Please model this.
Amino acid sequence: DAGVTQSPTHLIKTRGQQVTLRCSPISGHKSVSWYQQVLGQGPQFIFQYYEKEERGRGNFPDRFSARQFPNYSSELNVNALLLGDSALYLCASSFIDNEQFFGPGTRLTVL
Amino acid sequence: GQQVMQIPQYQHVQEGEDFTTYCNSSTTLSNIQWYKQRPGGHPVFLIQLVKSGEVKKQKRLTFQFGEAKKNSSLHITATQTTDVGTYFCADLTGNQFYFGTGTSLTVIP
Model:
């Protein structure tokens, strides 16, 4: 079985630009969560989507948005990028509140 | 918001020694999950604890959930070089996952 996949692997953007990150969950998983991980820190929860509805939201500004599609894949959008948005963005899928399976992440660099 | 602290932040051990990381919260923890992240990798699920006082074992790893549900611990017996990585606890409260600050384990051969 394929694991969680994320695209792109790496991304370089400049301040003020917008970015879209993509995630495909493990087959059968209906929950997708997004995390931001800055080097040397633990993952910070951004969003959880379940059955295409937002189920949880972390303490991130409105520049961050996400959605989940009928096939349970998900996109994370970040507008008006700041230097501080540079991080590893992780996607995790699960059945609901069970163990989360993380993807390899998207490394975003904002210049 | 919820803050989940882990101690120690870093731990260097000689191969064969034991290792313990502690996860503490000022508020009651609901549903504790433990993850391991290897350098350059992504978090990998280890275990989930939900009951007060729960103890679970996986080979050389022992996980505990405190009686008051305000702390949890992970103990590794006789560390091996394959145990290298950062260990995170994560709590699910109010539809949000709160990851701890992590403990980075280095095992010296």
User: Anything to note?
Assistant: The interface with chain A takes residues 1, 31, 33, 41-45, 48, 88, 90, 92, 94-102 of chain B (CB under 8 Å). Chain B has a mean pLDDT of 94.
